Amino acid sequence: TVQRLQPFASTIFAEMTALAVRHDAINLGQGFPDTDGPASMLDTARQAIADGLNQYPPGPGMPVLRQAVAADRLARYGLDHDPDSEVLITVGATEAISAAILGLVEPGEEVVLIEPYYDSYAASVALAGAVRRSVPLARAGTKFVVDLDALSAAITPKTRMLVINTPHNPTGTVFTPDEIAAVAELACEHDLLVLSDEVYEHLVFDGRTHTALATLPGMYERTVSVSSAAKTFNVTGWKIGWACGPAELIDAVRTAKQYMSFVGGGPFQPAVAHALSHEQQWVKELRDSLQAKRDVLYDALVASGLEVHSGGGTYYLCADITAIGERDGIDFCRTLPERIGVAAVPVSVFTDHPQPWNPLVRFAFCKQDHVLEEAARRLRTLG
Ligand code: PMP
Ligand code: GLN
């Protein structure tokens, strides 16, 4: 393995999922749902295969999907993307993220991350030969907030890009409109590109709304917005994602993407297009059901004696294990599957400054009710 990739030899998701399998534990570590997406979407995919849509789709993605993504962003955010030049279909959000960094950041330039961060950001920055500067979220009681002073201090003349993710993995935080506006102002002031990872855009609870970064003043022209079908339609294995933004930026993402995978997921593209156009009610029901699951897990974690944090969106809740006499989330997660038959992931592995994050553990609640109830029962035995 080349030196710049050596710190990334294995992912926490692979490690904890393997442990869950070994101990037949309920896997609340890796975030994936255990039910299928809308039936009409699955039927459309089956039909696409039967109709022979099994060869390379067009490089930027099938027009029907690019149009559906553009129409969806226009309807929900008022953003008017040209489907031909401002929407690119990718192999999951993961490829969109890597291709955006590879296509837009020169080796040696700096990328600012907010930690804890989704693990592929740091690896993608390393792949690009760029330098990451990570700024911790601040803790305000059981909430996480963007530390604007620290963010501002991390920006140097070499900074090219800022990566922001809301709703936020792993903490489950939905950043407030004020926080997002302040981040946008900073990006404009320093003339930075912004990679906005919005894969959980639909999964916001308790009446919150998602703020798409590109809608803020001065942001459209500097933002690559990334999302995917994985979390919106329960198809994490389909790997249909997209990047949207001004033509010049999307062209750079496309340039990198075409040599990574060229294309992907042919018959799934019309299926996701169908879902975006016809299954918004299904998405609303998904959001409501996830909010209820969040509550079940929240109660179980509190009953087990843990201090639970945030919880405004996504698939995840974070809990502090200090209250039950534990200190190290990595040790805790390595033994939890054997101990009580539940897997989780430690938050500190998503950071460059692990110390303050050591006692935090992330639990996913995107599971069927009976699975979650059983996990809740097992978690309560901790307390
Ligand atoms: N960003 C975040 C914040 C995620 O949680 C995930 C999925 N776990 C991804 C990107 C990757 O999305 P995809 O599965 O569409 O590649
Ligand atoms: N997005 C999911 C999570 O954060 C899964 C990521 C993965 O398996 N790479 O848990």
UniProtKB/TrEMBL annotation:
UniProt keyword Transferase, yes or no: yes
GO molecular function: kynurenine-oxoglutarate transaminase activity; pyridoxal phosphate binding
SUPFAM superfamilies: PLP-dependent transferases (SSF53383)
UniProt-listed NCBIfam families: PRK07777.1, PRK09082.1
Keyword flag Magnesium: no
Obligatory cofactor(s): pyridoxal 5'-phosphate
Taxonomic lineage from the root: Bacteria, Bacillati, Actinomycetota, Actinomycetes, Mycobacteriales
PANTHER family: FI04487P
InterPro entries cross-referenced by the UniProt entry: Aminotransferase_I/II_large, Kynurenine-oxoglutarate_AT, PyrdxlP-dep_Trfase, PyrdxlP-dep_Trfase_major, PyrdxlP-dep_Trfase_small
Protein name: Putative aminotransferase
Family statement: Belongs to the class-I pyridoxal-phosphate-dependent aminotransferase family.
Gene Ontology cellular-component terms listed: cytoplasm
Domain Aminotransferase class I/classII large: 24-379
Keywords associated with the record: Aminotransferase, Pyridoxal phosphate, Transferase
